[in-house]
Amino acid sequence: MARRARAGVREDADVVAALMHGKPVLLSGGNPQIAKGDGDAPVQAYIAAMPGWKSDVGRRLDALIVRTLPHVRKAVKWNSPFYGVEGNGWFLSFHCVTRYVKVAFFNGALLQPLPPGESKQKDVRYLHIHEGDTIDEARIGDWIRQVSTLPGWMP
To answer: Domain residue spans in the chain?
Structure first.
């Protein structure tokens, strides 16, 4: 138990230090802790706080989504950026995991071809982007076009 208590104290100290220096706290897997909010500003704050190479992936994904769907709705919820269509719910989100960026397509099971990652939720499909992966913008852009026309996820 003493070991667990020390780890918790260390984590608390890291959180306090990050807050004092104006830096977002990185949660498990390096996912930034960003206050929830609607619009582009919280999404850009999330992307800027993504660690290392993942920030570049976040910028590229965000730019591709905006190029593909210029009037996209954005928000940060549950420490992840969400993208959707006003009145139609959310169609995509991404999240930092230790070794990759996990892109979730909320109605991905209806996309052609299917995004490669399976989910425990029957309608959701994932794309995992690892450091050094080539990002197939044409394929991802096509998935964005497809999924944005489907009914989105409404929490």
So the answer is: 2-148
Show Cβ contacts of residue 78 under 8 Å, excluding neighbours closer than 6 positions.
36
Q: At what angle do helices 53-68 and 40-49 cross, to 10 degrees?
A: 150
Asked if 65 contacts 83 with a C-beta cutoff of 8 angstroms, the reply is yes
For the 2-148 domain, the top CATH level (class) is alpha beta
Secondary structure letter of residue 151 according to DSSP: -
Strand partners, 81: 76
Task: For the chain, give the longest Cα–Cα distance.
Answer: 53
Question: What is the CA 20 to chain-centroid distance, rounded?
Answer: 25
Do the Cβ atoms of 141 and 66 come closer than 8 Å?
no
Q: What DSSP state is assigned to residue 117?
A: B
Amino acid at 143: W
Q: How far is CA 86 from the centre of its chain?
A: 19
Strand partners, 93: 82, 104
pLDDT score of 51 more than 50: yes
Separation of first and last alpha carbons in the chain: 38
What pLDDT, in 10s, does the model give residues 87-125? 999 999 999 999 999 999 999 999 999 999 999 999 999
